[in-house]
Design a protein that fits this description.
Blueprint: H1 3-31, H2 36-59, H3 63-74, H4 76-106, H5 110-137
Helix pairs in contact: 1-2, 4-5
Length: 138
């Protein structure tokens, strides 16, 4: 994929985040829901979109910054660091969520424990699907 197309895709991602965040905020307002979580989450998603757009504008202001960013993103050392960080994040999330499942089960919140357990299961299944797809392509 052409790098400029990749950057344009990121811009669209930012716009989609802003729209989804606005839909969540408006949805809570229109339905007069008391669910502050959805409204706060919508705001956070919208802010991710704003950050993406600002990042896009900074990178695309001139050809030199585009080249510099492309080099940063294709540098093998940076790619290795990114992969290690993703791997560590995955492992830490699973450990913390396992502890939360145990604690919520012990304090008599079986529904919460069950849904967190389901999310762990789905995450591991997605991991294995990605693993096999990437392994076949390599």
């Amino acid at each position: 994929m052409d790098y400029k197309k990749k950057l344009k895709t990121r811009l669209y991602y930012g716009i989609i985040c802003i729209v989804l965040g606005a839909i969540m905020i408006i949805g809570v307002t229109v339905t007069k829901s008391e669910n502050e979580y959805i409204s706060a989450f919508g705001f956070a998603v919208a802010m991710v979109g704003v950050a993406r757009i600002i990042q896009y504008l900074k990178i695309t202001k001139n050809e030199d910054s585009i080249k510099k960013q492309k080099i940063n993103e294709t540098d093998e050392r940076n790619l290795s660091i990114i992969q290690k960080a993703k791997s560590a994040t995955f492992s830490i999330y699973l450990l913390i969520s396992c502890a939360v499942v145990i604690v919520t089960a012990l304090i008599d919140m079986p529904d919460v424990a069950k849904w967190i357990g389901y999310s762990q299961f789905v995450l591991v299944i997605i991991y294995w699907i990605c693993y096999w797809i990437i392994r076949k392509k390599s």
